[in-house]
Amino acid sequence: MLPPIPILFLLSTIFESGRSALLADPAQLRTTQYDFVVVGGGTAGCVIASRLSEDPSVSVLVIEAGGSNTQEGSDVIQVPFFAGDATPGTKFDWNYTTVPQSGLGGRSVLFPRGRVLGGSSSVNFMFYTRGPSDDFNRLARVSGDEGWAWDNIFPFVLKVDSLGSKTVLLQSEKHVPSADMHNTTGQFEPSVHGFNGPLLTSLPGFPTDIDGRVKNTTVILKDEFPFNIDMNSGNPLGVGWLQSTIGNGARSSSATAFLTPALNRPNVDVLIETQVTRLLQTGTSGSVPILQGVEFAQSRTGPHFNVKASKEVILSAGSIGTPQILMLSGVGDQASLTSLGIKTIVDVPDVGENMQDHAFVAIQWTVNSNKTIDTLNDQPALFNAALAEYDQTHTGVLADNPAGNQIGWFRLPEDSEILRTFGDPTGGPVSPHFELMFENGFFSFTQPIPTSGNFFTILVAMVSPTSRGSVKLVTNSVFDHPLIDPALLGSTFDQEVLVEAVKASQRFVASSPWKGYIVAPFIDSVNATTDQGIKEYAAKFGTTIRHPVATSMVSKLTDKSGVVGPQLLVKNVVGVRVVDASIFPFAVGAHPQAAVYAIAERSANLIKIAHGIQT
Ligand SMILES: Cc1cc2nc3c(=O)[nH]c(=O)nc-3n(C[C@H](O)[C@H](O)[C@H](O)COP(=O)(O)OP(=O)(O)OC[C@H]3O[C@@H](n4cnc5c(N)ncnc54)[C@H](O)[C@@H]3O)c2cc1C
Ligand SMILES: *[C@@H]1O[C@H](CO)[C@@H](O)[C@H](O)[C@H]1NC(C)=O
Ligand SMILES: *[C@@H]1O[C@H](CO)[C@@H](O)[C@H](O)[C@H]1NC(C)=O
Ligand SMILES: *[C@@H]1O[C@H](CO)[C@@H](O)[C@H](O)[C@H]1NC(C)=O
Ligand SMILES: *[C@@H]1O[C@H](CO)[C@@H](O)[C@H](O)[C@H]1NC(C)=O
Ligand SMILES: *[C@@H]1O[C@H](CO)[C@@H](O)[C@H](O)[C@H]1NC(C)=O
Question: Could you give all domains of the chain from N- to C-terminal order, each with its CATH number?
Fold first, then answer.
C-alpha cells in the first residue's frame, strides 16, 4: 500500500496555476486606470471579471478584501466535507453578528459571509439549486425586463444558445460524475444540465444508510413528499437528489471555476487583502453624478489609494458589502448619511433596506444505527481512514457534501388557513414555502454537538419570508461592521410556516421506512410537539441559513423605490452597476448561489453589449 499523501500536497498539485496577476499590495498596481473595476472578488465578481476579460483589449481590476482561496489552511475550503469548518469565526469569514432578532427570542446570531477569493461560494455548503422558474419570472415582472425571465436566463445556466442573435451565450455549468462514479441514471435529468462550462456540479458520491429510507418515503407518502428527478428544471417541488458545486472530489467555487483561468490573462489584475472604502465622484453627466473612482486601503490607518474605471465600476461586494459601500459613497438615505457626517450625492432611501433571508431550525432524532457521520466524528481511527482514502483517491465521505444527499421543497396546501389569512408571498405555484434537508447524523449551527450517540437530522427552512430587515452604517468607515438585521422569523406568517414545516418533518419520520430506525426525538426537541412548543424551539435554536438578499434591490426604471434599474445600474448616478445577491427583490426559493451565477452571467453579457465588447 502507498503511504498516505497529505491533503495539502495533493490539493496544491490540483489547484496550482499561474498566479502572476494576484497582488497583495496596492503599490504593485501597474496603472491607475482600468476599463472596469470589480469591487469584491466573490461569487458574482469572479464571473464578471472572467467574462469581461475574455476580450484581451479590455482591462479589469478586481479588488477583494479577503485573501487567496489557496492560502495556508484552505483545506477547509477545498475538501467538501470540511465546509462547516470554513466559517464561522475563521480567517475566511467576515465574523458578522446580527442585531437581536425578535423572531428568535431576542437572540443575536452569527452571520457568516465569505471573505476570500470566491466570496461565499468558497465557504458555502455547495448546494446547487437554481430555484423556481416562478422566481425568475417575478424578477422579470418587478424589474420590467423580460431578459430575467426563466426562459431567457435559462440558457445562461445551461447551454450554448443563440437566442435569435449572433450572441453565443456561454455555458456556465459542467455536470461531472460523482466521486464514486456510480450510475446516476434516475437521479437527475441530463437534458436540463450543462456539460462544458467552468462551474463543476455533481450528485452525491458516497451512499448513506438513509438514502433508501428517504427514497421510500417519497413512494409511501407520495402526495405530500413526491420524488422530483431534478429540482433544477424550473420546478423544484418535491424530494430529490442534492446537486452540489463539487467536482473531482473538491469544491468548485467562483474562484476555482472562473477567476483561476482568468489569472493567466495579462489584462486582469486581482488585488487581494484590500478593502474598497468608497466610490468617488469623477464628474457629472448633465446633472447626474458620475461615480467611476474607487478608493481603497488595507487598513483603517494605512495609506488610501484610488483608481478610475474608464467604463464602469461593478459592485459585487455582496448583500452586506454592496449597500455598505454605496452608503459610504453618499448613495443612500440622506438623513441617515448626514447624521454620520457623510455627504449625500444622491438620496436613495432603499439602499440597505428590504433585506430578506432564510431562517431554519435543525431537528434531530436518535437512531438505531451506527452508520452515521457521528460515528466518524467520534472515532479518530475511522476518521483517519476516511482522510487517507480522500488523500489517495479524492473519494469517500470527505469528497461529499456534509449536508446530506437529498433535500426537498414544499408548498403549504392550497387551502391552508395561513395562506387564506396572509396571502401567498411566493413567486407562484412552483415556488416553495419551505425546505427539508435530510442529514445522516447530528447537524446544528446552534446546539452543542453531542459527544456520543447516533442521530438523524432534518434541517427545516422557511424560504418564503414576508419579513424584511436592513443593513445600516454605524460609522463612516468601511472598517466598522454595519448593523445587520435579517429579521429572521420576523413576521407571524414566517413563524406559522416554520411550524407547519416542522410538523411536515415529523410526519416524514413517522412513516414506515423509518420504523425501527428512528428511536426518539433528541432531548432538545422533546417539547416540539405542539405549535407553541415548536415556536419556542425555533426561538431557542433557529438561526440563518445564510441567504441574505434585497439590500440593493432591483425595480423598474420608473419606480421611485429600489436601488438599481432593470440592467442593474444604480439609479440616479452614472457608471456603477450592482451584480450580486443584493439585487434580488425577494428571497429566492432556493439556496441562492446558482441564481447569483445566473444573474452574473447575464450581467456580463449586458455589460459587453453596453460597451460594444465582443461577446
Ligand atoms: C456559510 C454559508 C453557506 C451557504 N450555503 C449555500 C449553499 O449551500 N448553496 C447556495 O446556493 N448558497 C449558499 N450560501 C449563500 C451563497 O453562497 C451566497 O448567496 C452567494 O455566494 C452570494 O454571492 P455574492 O456574489 O452576492 O456575494 P459573495 O460571494 O459573498 O461575495 C462578496 C465579496 O465581496 C467582498 N467584499 C465585501 N466588501 C468588500 C469591500 N469593501 N472591499 C472589497 N471586497 C469586499 C467579500 O469579501 C466577498 O468576497 C451560503 C452562504 C454562506 C455564507
Ligand atoms: C474572524 O475571526 C477569526 C478568528 O478569531 C480571525 O482569525 C479572523 O481574522 C477574523 N476575520 C476578520 C475579517 O476579522
Ligand atoms: C445506467 O443505468 C441505466 C438504467 O438502469 C442503464 O440504462 C444504463 O445503461 C446504465 N449506464 C451505464 C453506463 O451503465
Ligand atoms: C425500500 O423499499 C423497497 C421496496 O419495498 C425495499 O426492498 C427496501 O428494503 C426499502 N429500503 C429501505 C431502506 O427501507
Ligand atoms: C456498529 O455496530 C455493530 C453492531 O453492534 C458493531 O459490530 C460495529 O463494531 C459497530 N461499528 C462501529 C464503527 O462502531
Ligand atoms: C420541556 O418542557 C418542560 C415543562 O415545561 C420543561 O421543564 C423542560 O425544560 C422542557 N425541555 C426542553 C428541552 O425544552
Answer: 26-73+255-353+550-610 (3.50.50.60)
